[in-house]
From TrEMBL, chain A:
SUPFAM superfamilies: Thiolase-like. InterPro entries: Thiolase, Thiolase-like, Thiolase_C_2, Thiolase_N. Residues 238-382 form the Thiolase C-terminal domain. Coiled coil: none annotated. The keyword Nucleotide-binding does not apply. PANTHER family: ACETYL-COA C-ACETYLTRANSFERASE, NON-SPECIFIC LIPID-TRANSFER PROTEIN-LIKE 2. Residues 13-222 form the Thiolase N-terminal domain. Keywords: Transferase. It comes from the Bacteria. This is Acetyl-CoA acetyltransferase. One of its GO terms (molecular function) is acetyl-CoA C-acyltransferase activity. It comes from Acidovorax soli.
Length: 384, 130
């Protein structure tokens, strides 16, 4: 007989501002985020018995998780790193939930951070990221991550009728949300016209369709006990991995996001209609549109219409990335993907300050790594 | 060569990379199920058999599935070419392939593979089929 699985709660969260942190190393940033997360969880360091740490492109260490543990004076019974591109954060949270559910750990610190902006040249950063492409078939063509997403966007837009103006709606919304967050990287509001007229990067994507490269760190604590600020249980999770490289993506309409989400909903015994907050990965505007539509939060080619109707605004029925997402809060790799969950937890527990909305009861989180290659869905549910 | 090349499939993809250098596009086909597949793999994506894959020469005709014009090149080597057009095509034999293309090609266009040299490498460029 299997012992019954125990519930796993998000118990604490913390992070640095995103943007330029000149002179601060990946570990400096992770230290700051971890300290905040452990404090908000109401825990002492010796109570952290599990540590999951995401990779840092500026610190390609062989054993990053235990390097972090030594520097942060943590002595967990379980630790390892994890690399799943943009899905690393959500995947670590899912793994932390499993560690708590099985009884292996009581308090797992999930951590990511790096000086991706100031710690290396822009060319170096872009070339490192481009290596998610196939080294023999794709990268030699002079392709970059924006080019991969642009190719995918061209096919999705051709098949569904989504337009550049549709994509731009989400750049405007993310910037408006970030304007309300003191820690966001990009806070100057932009208009639809400014997005459409921004510098071309890889058609159909222009500069404001793309997230910035930032420095920063984020951390969460997943625990067997709920937070003092409110009981937010990790009610469901799912993954799907159908391809690594864009060329091998079989169907742009079914890239794996829907499959991961369905598993999470089935496990949580909830449906799309039960969700009242969205934390969706938004490396590019097209990422957000495709994920919203494949998972089912909008019909095909209908996401922008919902955005225009105000449905995804902080005041709407389905607030989306109220921190500003990767597109405007910023993107420093693993931490960028963790920020969606940090914000969801803060909103659900009434800790979002001036951004606070009616505290959501059920949040759906989704992240993708690579070029819609790896998908992780999470469902957070308030128990009170 | 790229500065970072740690993900190269090396010998696995050599029939493709060697073929491209000689002006031939190659793809993997499974002798067990007959399925043709994209990229280089150790097993057949259709039937799962291992050790049944063989490289075939493609005729080079294809249909454009996706297209972008890259304005912001990722490296100095490609900045000289920018803006350049990249496509994903479906070869007549079935597999998909990323490559360069003539300016102005559109999704659905029938194209034919050609080759050009860039920075010591031979790359494929698709042009409208005549």
């Amino acid at each position: 007989m299997n012992a019954a699985l125990r519930p796993a709660y998000v118990r604490g969260a913390g992070g640095t501002s995103f943007g330029r942190h000149e002179g601060r190393s990946a570990l400096d940033l992770m230290d700051a985020a971890a300290a905040q997360a452990i404090e908000s969880a109401g825990l002492a360091r010796h109570e952290i018995d599990g540590v999951l740490c995401g990779y840092a492109t500026t610190l390609p260490h062989l054993m990053l998780s235990t390097l972090v543990c030594e520097r942060l004076a943590l002595r967990p019974r379980y630790a390892h790193g994890l690399q799943l591109g943009g899905a690393s954060g959500a995947a670590m949270l899912m793994a932390a939930r499993e560690l708590v559910r099985s009884g292996r750990c009581r308090n797992v610190l999930v951590l990511g951070g790096e000086n991706r902006l100031s710690g290396q040249s822009r060319d170096s950063s872009i070339q490192t990221l481009a290596q998610v492409g196939d080294a023999d078939f794709e990268v030699p063509n002079g392709a970059s991550v924006p080019a991969y997403y642009a190719l995918m966007a061209s096919e999705y837009m051709q098949r569904t009728g989504v337009t550049s103006a549709d994509l731009a709606e989400f750049a405007v919304l993310m910037r408006a949300n970030a304007a309300g967050h003191p820690d966001a990287h990009l806070r100057t509001p932009v208009t639809l016209q400014e997005v459409l007229a921004s510098k071309p990067i890889a058609s159909p994507l222009s500069l404001l369709d793309c997230c910035p490269i930032s420095d920063g760190a984020m951390a969460l604590v997943v625990s067997a006990d709920p937070a003092a600020q409110g009981a937010v249980v990790m009610a469901g999770a799912g993954q799907a991995h159908r391809h690594q490289h864009l060329t091998a993506m079989e169907d742009v309409m079914q890239c794996g996001a829907g499959e991961a989400a369905q598993q999470a909903f089935e496990e949580a015994r909830l449906g799309l209609g039960d969700v009242d907050y969205l934390g969706i990965y938004d490396s590019f505007t097209i990422t957000l549109v495709m994920l919203l539509e494949e998972i089912g939060f909008a019909p095909r080619a209908g996401a922008a219409q919902r955005a225009r109707a105000g449905d995804f605004a902080p005041t709407g029925p389905l607030p989306l990335n109220t921190h500003g997402g990767l597109l405007s809060f910023g993107h420093c790799g693993v931490a960028g993907g963790l920020a969606h969950t940090v914000e969801a937890w803060r909103q659900m527990t009434g800790q979002a300050g001036e951004r606070q909305i009616q505290p959501p009861r059920r949040a759906f989180i989704h992240a993708d790594g690579g070029v819609m290659s790896s998908h992780v869905s999470l469902i957070l549910s308030r128990e009170d | 060569m790229n500065a970072i090349d740690f993900t190269s499939a090396g010998p696995l993809a050599a029939p493709f990379t060697d073929g491209q250098r000689d002006g031939v596009l190659r793809y993997q086909q499974c002798t067990a199920c007959g399925g043709a597949q994209t990229l280089a793999r150790y097993a057949c994506q259709h039937c799962g058999e291992r050790g049944t894959l063989h490289w075939r020469d493609a005729q080079g005709s294809a249909t454009v599935r996706a297209v972008t014009v890259v304005a912001r090149a990722p490296s100095e080597a490609f900045r000289a070419l920018a803006p350049y057009t990249l496509v994903i095509v479906q070869l007549a034999e079935g597999p998909r392939l990323m490559g360069h293309a003539n300016p102005g090609v559109r999704i659905g266009d029938q194209v034919q593979a050609g080759f050009f040299a860039h920075e010591g490498r031979t790359l494929v460029r698709f042009a409208p089929a005549s």
